[in-house]
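Continuing the batch. This is chain 6 of the set; chains 1 through 5 are on the previous pages. Same settings as before, nothing changed between runs. Recording input and output for traceability.
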Amino acid sequence: DPAPRGYPQSNAEYLPALAGVACPLPSAQRRLALVVAGPVSRCLPRRAEIAAIIQAAIAAHAGALAGAPTD
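Output for chain 6:
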C-alpha cells in the first residue's frame, strides 16, 4: 500500500532484479507519474532516498508541470 509512504515502489515485480519507485506528477488533464528504476542491488535499499529526490524535483517544478500544454 503506497499511502503510508506517499509513493508506490516495486521489488522485482515487473522484471527480475529490478527495483524502483513512482511519484505522481501534477496534471489536471492526465494521470502521470515519474518512475525511476534500476538494479535491485543498488536501488532496493535506497528507494526512500530516490523517492525523496524525485518528490523534491517535482515540488520545485510543480507550477511549470501543472501548466504544461497537452498534445
